[in-house]
Amino acid sequence: MNGGNHDDIYTNLPALMRLRYSARGFSYLPRQPVRSLLSGRKRSRLRGRGLDFDELRHYRPGDDIRTMDWRVTNRTGKPHVRVYTEERDRPVIVVVDQRLPMFFGSQQKMKSVIAAEVAALTAWRVLAVGDRVGAILFNDNKVVEAKASRNERRLVSWLGDLVSMNNDLSVTARHASNPAGLKDALRLLERSIGHDYLVVLVSDFYGWDDAALATICRISQHNDIICSLVYDPLERDISGASELVVSDGKFQLEIDPDRQDLGRKFEASFESSVGHVQGELRRHNIPVLPVDTAAPVTRQLQEKLGGQRVLQ
Fold it and tell me: CA torsion 143→147→153→157, rounded to 10°?
């Protein structure tokens, strides 16, 4: 990574707290701008707030004639109306990956930091519109759940847990990365939520397989899910680099991408795995939101979820 600024390698709670002031210009609500990633979906089921059927009762003077249930009225011979109540909210769960493969970045920030910023921006935006927000955070060793709430202190609490996971990452870690971590988090998610949730999954999808896809598809039957795919530009095109210096902020290691065709093999592996993930998700009508490590996260969300053309 160029530079080596500690704030680019690791995040911190004050930084994630400050993002509440940048969480604007994008939305996860059903009505989307024309250029938004979520606009024009053939089977879009992004629900948002609306009206829920509450009860069927006899007509009373002053009731809106448009709520008349003519089928019941004709059957019973007495006027009946359908009563609706406004849905209270649409709870949102942010699922955030902080495993070892996320501890990578070549330009501005680590994928793990970008994922934390996507999660924080999403959470602050959801809280701003009055909905509940919670999280499932996972790394190579554990999965932490925070129930959806409108309470700001609870949001700050799980952001603190996210910072702790993020700051525990190290290339010198003695444990290996856990490819089953993604499936474990998804299984917990499936057990924890009911219907009509919005799920924002933020990961590089390391460990993706048919079981992970099957769980996502089951969840999407009764909920909305958006997959935020975090990647680094160097993963897509490593061959252009004549030499690489890898660092965790303390130690450095020089790598030659041309040696044993390492660069080509790395790129082929990335395109194969990421292309497969994107293809499978889109085939099941699940939106994929690519987020890279090179541009500010706020700008990327505003462009892709707000339809804005944000100038640098």
Answer: 0
Alpha-carbon distance 38 to 46, whole Å?
9
Q: Quote the Cα angle for 74-80-86, to 5°.
A: 135
State pLDDT tens for residues 77-122: 989 888 765 555 689 999 999 999 999 888 789 999 999 999 999 9
For residue range 6-45, list pLDDT tens digits in order.
767 999 999 999 999 999 988 876 555 545 566 544 434 4
pLDDT in tens, 176-190: 789 999 999 999 999
What residues have CB less than 8 Å from 130, skipping those under 6 apart?
Answer: 89, 150
Burial 251-285, CB ≥16 within 10 A → b, else e: eeeeeebeeeeebeebbeebeeebeebbebbeeee
For the chain, what percentages of helix, strand and coil (3-state, to nearest 5) are there?
40, 20, 40
Please report, for the chain, the start and end positions of each structural domain, with discontinuous segments joined by +. 6-44+89-305, 51-86
Mapping DSSP to helix (H, G, I), strand (E, B) and coil, where does residue 16 land? helix
Q: 192: helix, coil or strand?
A: helix
Return the residue matching tokens 């999808």.
Answer: 205
Q: Look at the domain 6-44+89-305 and name its fold.
A: Rossmann fold (3.40.50)
Got the DSSP string for 265-289?
Answer: HHHHHHHHHHHHHHHHHHHTT--EE
